[in-house]
């Protein structure tokens, strides 16, 4: 099957990271895109696994060298996708899963028109707020700013190719998996293979009718 980028976006608290992790654990044809960021690690996060934690200077150097497929500033911190992630996925023939924000997804689509875009929605406002507050780190002004960002991200939902409601984790993961399976069979992703097969069949038929 073909290799292509998959941009998965959601408002903060919609369970995007949880869905991505579950999807990756259940699949062997996906590669997770480890983003670079200037924010400090949260408890339990590992450098090179969850993020590449870099300084502002290192990040801006990567951007200037063209080493980032996309990058954006979010809540005062820099986030970006190393181009090497996409190159690794193409070498391995895997789909690259990007746990990314709306700004980043737009840049990825601009750079790679074959990108599949998926937007995750929480099932309700009550669940969204429960998930946001459940983080513990989301309080006061910080919570308010994340709510404002979430509102802006929700405005972009209708511009995505696919929208999945993340009510039950298993169902959301299955929905995204089915999207990727279907996309992998699209003709434009397999044109060379299909043309070769059709040519072989036509040649056989022509030889048999002479």
UniProtKB/TrEMBL annotation:
Enzyme class: transferase
Any one annotated GO CC term: cytosol
Superkingdom assignment: Bacteria
Pfam annotation, one family: Guanylate_kin
Chief place where the protein resides: cytoplasm
Transmembrane segments: none
Subcellular localization: Cytoplasm
Coiled coil (UniProt feature): none
Annotated residues for binding of ATP: 10-17
Keyword Cell membrane: no
Gene Ontology MF terms in the entry: ATP binding; GMP kinase activity
Family the entry assigns: Belongs to the guanylate kinase family.
Name assigned to this protein: Guanylate kinase
Organism the protein comes from: Candidatus Kutchimonas denitrificans
Gene that this polypeptide is encoded by: gmk
């Amino acid at each position: 099957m073909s290799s292509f980028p998959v941009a998965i976006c959601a408002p903060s608290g919609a369970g995007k990271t949880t869905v991505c992790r579950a999807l990756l654990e259940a699949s062997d044809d996906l590669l997770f895109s480890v983003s670079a960021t200037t924010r400090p690690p949260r408890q339990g996060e590992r450098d090179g696994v969850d993020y590449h934690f870099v300084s502002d200077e290192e990040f801006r150097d990567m951007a200037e060298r063209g080493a980032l497929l996309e990058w954006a500033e979010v809540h005062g911190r820099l986030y970006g996708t190393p181009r090497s992630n996409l190159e690794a996925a193409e070498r391995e023939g895997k789909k690259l899963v990007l746990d990314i924000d709306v700004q980043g997804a737009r840049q990825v689509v601009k750079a790679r028109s074959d990108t599949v875009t998926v937007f995750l929605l929480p099932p309700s406002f009550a669940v969204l707020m429960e998930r946001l507050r459940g983080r513990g780190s989301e309080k006061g002004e910080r919570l308010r700013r994340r709510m404002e960002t979430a509102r802006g991200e929700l405005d972009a939902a209708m511009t995505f190719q696919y929208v999945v409601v993340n009510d039950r984790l298993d169902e959301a993961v299955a929905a995204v998996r089915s999207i990727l399976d279907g996309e992998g069979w699209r003709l434009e992703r397999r044109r060379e293979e299909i043309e070769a097969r059709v040519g072989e069949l036509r040649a056989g038929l022509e030889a048999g009718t002479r």
